[in-house]
Amino acid sequence: MQQIKKHHKHLNIARACWCFFVFLLLITIDGQHTQAQAISISPSRMFFTGAKSQELTQQVTLTNTGTTALSFKASLMDWARDSIGEKQYAQPGTNALSNAQWLEVAPNVVEIPSGAKQQLTVTMHVPAGASADAVTHSMLFLTQINEQGGSKANATHASIGVIVKLEFGIHIYYTPPLTIKKDLDFLTFYYDGIKTSGTVQVRRVAVKVKNQGDVMTDGFISFEVTNKSTGEEFKIPAKAISMLPNDEQVIYVDLPITLKGPYLLVALLDGGEETNLKVAKKELDFIY
């Protein structure tokens, strides 16, 4: 695979702002009641770095701009990504690279009145025996424990109530000091054949990417498709990925079934600052 030194305006992709914002409108059809919930939680990812035996703290801020009070309970889980990047959850302390048992969250239950803010303190107790080079991770869940629903039916109006419970997951990472290497790279680039997506047939291609670095790394993959006979080209919008060290992930891209003839496909992998742009190429001849 090729790599190209780059400035990070090359792909002109805005990095995400790592916070949650949810707005929910709850309507009770009784001619009278409309309730709104709006909650923001920041950050959505927490990165800890510190020496062995050190105590580290960060805050999570919950802001309620809705019209009713909201209550949340904190809990911790382990997680890992499968081969296509989907998260799989497990009980805390199950995974070899879990840091859930290092964590303390206070308070464990928090109520945010309408128009108010509250903070949770997340404390990480880095064990004396923590690895000097392994990134560990877990997920902090904030689960709503008070139900917000529509009013009861009365004698003159039918009522349809909507009950909503919210849950947010905050990624928590620990990176040992001096662990800084970023290196996402392509492993393979292949044609996966004709597939059915929803109700239509598509031509599916895939790339497999590995995080060969030492740290959790965000990246973007984009594709350029060129008809070698006509020179006509189009681009596939960039897809975001987030990978832990040594993880491998397959990213699928669906192309129109109508493509015919020889094509050049170029995949571009942007692993963020202080990395080189990686390039993979694949020539395909669609004859049917």
From TrEMBL:
GO molecular function terms listed in the Swiss-Prot or TrEMBL record: serine-type endopeptidase activity
Cited Gene3D superfamilies: Immunoglobulins (2.60.40.10)
InterPro entries per UniProt: Ig-like_fold (IPR013783)
One Gene Ontology term, aspect cellular component: membrane
Protein name: Pili assembly chaperone N-terminal domain-containing protein
Organism: Mucilaginibacter polytrichastri
